Amino acid sequence: MSSPVAPAQPPLPAAPAPSSAFTRRGTVFLLALFCCLLWGSSFPAIKSGYALLGIAGDDIPSKLVFAGWRFLAAGLMLLAWGAATGRRLGGWPPSVWRQLVVLGLLQTSVQYVFFYIGLAHTTGVKASIMNATSTFFSVLLAHWLHHNDRLTWRKSLGCAAGFVGVMVVNLGGAWGDGLAGVEFTLLGEGFVVIAALVLAVGGVYGKGISQHMDPVAMTGWQLVVGGGVLLAAGYALGGSLGHVTPASSALLGYMAVLSALAISIWSLLLKHNRVSLITAFNFMIPVFGALLSALFLGESILEWRNALALVLVCWGIWLVTQAPSALRRRVD
Asked: How many of the other CB atoms lie within 10 Å of CB of 273?
């Protein structure tokens, strides 16, 4: 789920591993919610980082530098952890390395160019809700690309609910204002939705790579590649981190740690449990993102359109991530 803002979440085999602490019901629920909380916190953290570093809304090169350092550091952390735990981190044929480069460019570089710019031109609450459209894009892409993952009435209803939620959150005036009452800009909400689409496409592409590579190694290398490209592009265009202070450095470090930690925990949960069970928790990311944006950025979540949109999007994601029989099964 790379979260919001969450980074790309590598798909893993559906079969659960032998019983362990990571299959206990309480552990699964707490760790999955913790990951969603971390990814949700990235929305206010990014906007706070802009303020602490003095990065203006139209300073795109500096935004690229900011994102580059975050993901390069997160990728290096994952690779270091992979090395410490004995995972294979290299020795693949050139074709595999080319796939990793493409994945890094797509899921980290391209996606976060759109996401970071979009977040700078909209609120954290709206961005956290609209970023959740990546789930619906994934469902639609799977329908066309995988014959065994077709749309069902449940998935169709979920996509429709999510679409209505996205429309509701962008209503600015009265209902009678029509299109004149819609608050939607290409650089803001539009770029967040494009980022969600790129995330979904990257997830489909990464599915094939993860079949013959450890997900920690795959994610670590794609973050290093994507983060390095963002960093190089940002500095080449004249970007900088601006006013580096202990507070801004701590925030940047937190964002790198949250990316590495959340992906690592999520991968362990996916390894030991059914994929459908774990991905069902994705609907909590926009909830935490909206709540934390309201808490730390002073943004309104109690406004009727934000509250209604959040309910619709979360319900939609819950519908599309639940197999019919999963509703009647409990955690192993």
From this structure: 20
Pull the structure tokens for residue 89.
Answer: 């981190």
Q: Is 238 helix (H, G, I), strand (E, B) or coil?
A: coil
Span 227-254, pLDDT tens digits: 999 999 999 999 998 778 899 999 999 9
**C-alpha to C-alpha distance for 139 and 147, rounded to whole angstroms:** 12
The label of the residue with tokens 């309480």 reads: 26
Nearest to 71 by CA among 192, 230, 209: 230
> Is residue 227 classed as helix, strand or coil in its secondary structure?
helix
Band the pLDDT of 304: cuts 50, 70, 90.
confident
Q: What is the SS3 string spanning 107-176?
A: HHHHHHHHHHHHHHCCCHHHHHHHCCHHHHHHHHHHHHHCCCCCCCHHHHHHHHHHHHHHHHHCECCCHH
Supply φ then ψ for residue 75, to 5 degrees: -65, -40
Grouping H, G, I as helix, E, B as strand and the rest as coil, residue 21 is helix
Which DSSP state fits 32?
A: H
Query: Alpha helix (H) ranges present in the chain?
Result: 25-53, 60-84, 94-104, 111-120, 124-130, 133-145, 153-169, 191-210, 215-236, 246-272, 275-279, 284-297, 304-320
SS3 211: coil
- With contact defined as beta carbons under 8 Å apart, do 248 and 70 qualify? no
